[in-house]
Amino acid sequence: MGTQGNAHIVWDWNGTLFHDNDAIIGATNAAFAELGLEPITLERYRALYCVPVPKFYERLMGRLPTDTEWEVMDAIFHRYYAEHRVRCGLTAGATKLLAGWRSAGRSQSILSMYVHEELVPLVRGFGIETHFIRVEGRVGPSGGSKAEHMVRHIRALGGVDPARTVVIGDAADDAVAARHVGARAVLYTGGSHGRASLEEVGVPVVDTLEEAVAEAERLAA
């Protein structure tokens, strides 16, 4: 597992290491269409997105979806996403950055809210699994916060020190999860949130993964 005292990165997957914006927007609009809602643009999505996800839908619908509506939308979203993610790839420069962090003797892991049994083969298919000491996706219902998942993730890493751990993600919830375990966070503007909403969180905000890793190195020093 991790080495006590060494810097560690917990990577988010969707919208961070995995550049899947097109699949996310397409899946969201497929779910909206089921309820007769107008399609959403990437810009509007990035301005309004939040977790728990039903709150995001409330911002768009003017009300919370009913339990039945949420179940239908969630099922359609994941079915569409699974079909269209195959056209998506890793974020530019990700493979080199992962290899560099590992070769420097530091550890890293993935914690994603994407379903675990689909995340693991996806990561493996890109040939990057060996860079991580743990790859962990969501087990259980979708739509919630990452905070409690982060508690279990950090515990499972063993020797990793939360004080020298930096979470790199594309959503405000990544920073919330980091704070929940005493870690730091760096937020990346290339995914689900625009810069304006990320800057409200009060942690470093960057435009590239290269900048994110450099900032993580500084924060974990």
Give your account of this protein's structure.
The protein has about 220 residues and is α/β, with parallel strands linked by helices. Helix content is about 45%, strand content about 15%. The protein is built from ten helices and eight strands. It has helices at about 20-35, 40-50, 55-60, 65-85, 95-105, 115-125, 145-155, 170-180, 195-200, 210-220; strands at about 10, 20, 90, 105-115, 135-140, 165-170, 185-190, 205. It has a six-stranded parallel sheet, sandwiched between helices. It has a two-stranded antiparallel sheet with strand order 2-3. Strand 6, helix 8 (about 170-180) and strand 7 form a beta-alpha-beta unit. Helix 1 runs antiparallel to helix 4 (about 65-85) and helix 7 (about 145-155) packs across helix 8. The longest helix is centred in the middle third of the chain and has 18 residues, at about 65-85. The model has no long low-confidence stretch (mean pLDDT about 95).
